[in-house]
């Protein structure tokens, strides 16, 4: 005796089969989303500024030469003109290379805002010309250099053009 299958039964079987495959597929897909020891956490995304600062911090020593070289790397990335010689010359004139130097006698000091750091920057100038990605500290050597070079670029074209107090 031949068994006849009605169209309704076939439709139900197809529906069951498709539903079963879809459910199994969804379960398999869900399993691949569950973290395992083989899945490594992705590092946090960094901003372009952070990348520039990290790139600048290559292997520069924590001394005047290293601070100038690190500042030059950041300045290059930010399009701030200046040379090693121009920065070094101005630093030696302004602070003799002491990142904690502070002028307590000039007109700025008399007005309550003494010049500080390697390039003797006052706080309002530092705030106006601070280079994003460097420390927000007037006496941080690299932040002081880059802010001063940024100021000098705006006022004189480059720190290389500064040959006296600025």
Automatic annotation (TrEMBL):
Secretion signal span: 1-40
Domain Transglycosylase SLT, first and last residues per copy: 91-161
Domain of life according to the entry: Bacteria
Xref: Pfam families: SLT
TM spans (from-to): none
Keywords: Signal
Name used for this protein in its record: Transglycosylase SLT domain-containing protein
Species, as recorded: Streptomyces alfalfae
Lineage: Bacteria, Bacillati, Actinomycetota, Actinomycetes, Kitasatosporales
């Amino acid at each position: 005796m031949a068994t006849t299958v009605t169209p309704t039964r076939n439709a139900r079987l197809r529906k069951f089969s498709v539903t079963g495959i879809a459910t199994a597929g969804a379960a398999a897909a869900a399993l691949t989303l569950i973290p395992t020891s083989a899945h490594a956490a992705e590092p946090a995304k960094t901003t372009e500024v952070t990348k520039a600062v990290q790139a600048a911090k290559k292997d520069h020593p924590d001394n005047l030469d290293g601070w100038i070289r690190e500042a030059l790397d950041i300045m290059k990335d930010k399009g701030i003109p200046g040379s090693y010689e121009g920065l070094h010359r101005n630093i030696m004139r302004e602070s003799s290379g002491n990142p904690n130097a502070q002028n307590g006698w000039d007109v700025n000091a008399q007005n309550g805002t003494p010049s500080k750091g390697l390039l003797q920057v006052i706080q309002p100038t530092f705030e106006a010309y601070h280079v994003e990605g460097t420390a927000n500290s007037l006496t941080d050597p690299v932040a002081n250099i880059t802010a001063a070079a940024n100021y000098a670029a705006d006022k004189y074209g480059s720190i290389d053009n500064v040959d006296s107090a600025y």
